[in-house]
Amino acid sequence: MAGIRTTDKSQQKPGAPVAVGGDEDVLLPIPNLEVPKAAFILAHPALTNLHDDARTRLREMIEKDETAPYLASLPPTLLPDSGALLERLRKANAEELEKLDARVKEAEENLGESELSEALRARATYYALIGEKDKAVEAHKLAIEKTPGLGARIDITLALIRIGLFFQDNKLIVDNIAAAKALVDEGGDWDRRNRLKVYSGVHALAVRDFKSAATNFLDALSTFTSTELMPYEEFIRLTVLAGVFALDRVDLKKKIIASPEILQVLPQAPLLRDFANSLYSCDYAKFFRSLAAVEDEYLRPSRLLSQHARYYTREMRIRAYGQLLESYRSFTMDSMTRAFGVSEEYLDHDLSRLISTGRLNCVIDKVNGVIETNRPDKRNAQYELVVKQGDLLLNQVQKLSRVIN
Fold this sequence. Notes:
Number of helices: 19
Structural class: mainly alpha
Largest sheet: 3 strands, antiparallel
Oligomer: single chain
Number of strands: 5
Shape: globular
Radius of gyration: 26 Å
């Protein structure tokens, strides 16, 4: 079993990423993040149309990677009749770990520092591969302590982030992103620096920070090599989803719609192409249809984004409403229903909710069937802010004077 990076392609598992830019030193997709994605789909009744394919893929991946600990952690209903498979995989795990323990012992007793580091990393990698979380984390931390090279320590830290993503352990992810940033600042190369941006972007999506995700993804767009984390096509999809959400209209055109890297992939994802283009071109009826389809195809089935699906679609509706209304002082309800391709009942309900919570600056005149914009006065708002901050400062000065006296 190779370490986290390998130069021997014969030791790579089928489907392992190919290095970009002629570098033979590649990161392996360990742990395999496709495994929990398939389990996520199986665990959700609303995604029954995807269950058969997900069940087949999950069983195949578990058997290929010998992930007995992970299989044992799954609810029995996800993969029924897997008892014999579990026992067989446990036996395979025990045999492989016995070999890896012997390799570590041999390195400790008879070999040098680099051989010991490689042996420790190989054992840590196998624990991560089979889904033995606690032992994998412990083994990776030990490997970091025994590994002298800065690049290798960054790779091990990135592996800890992947373990965190595999098990959705936010603390493990946050701690190791911070550790990886510190190591990269010590002198990490451009490849590892760009990989870390992708890892940071994925975590930003997980915690609903779409702006940070878009920034990180776009920074890494032209030099993406993090295929151990996700396929390039998935990276482009996430970049488009984050970019459409976070970028203003000028940057949306420049960085997403007209991006050469994104244009190469979007023909295979016409839904995302229509989603971005319809918002930019103000085709709101097409945008609403695309948004509904994006929710069904890319948000709900995504382990990363499903929990943010309602938030994402609501914020995108607000953006579309605001983009239309900002050009007018008033707009008839009939014209707006036609513009968005929805019923007046739906529009009235949706706008009323958003207006009542302060998300849209307009009012609905039900008698005349008109929506009137109510733009905030920026000058008065700035004046009120200065007055408020001045009051706070005066209060602090008065408190300080009393303490001094």
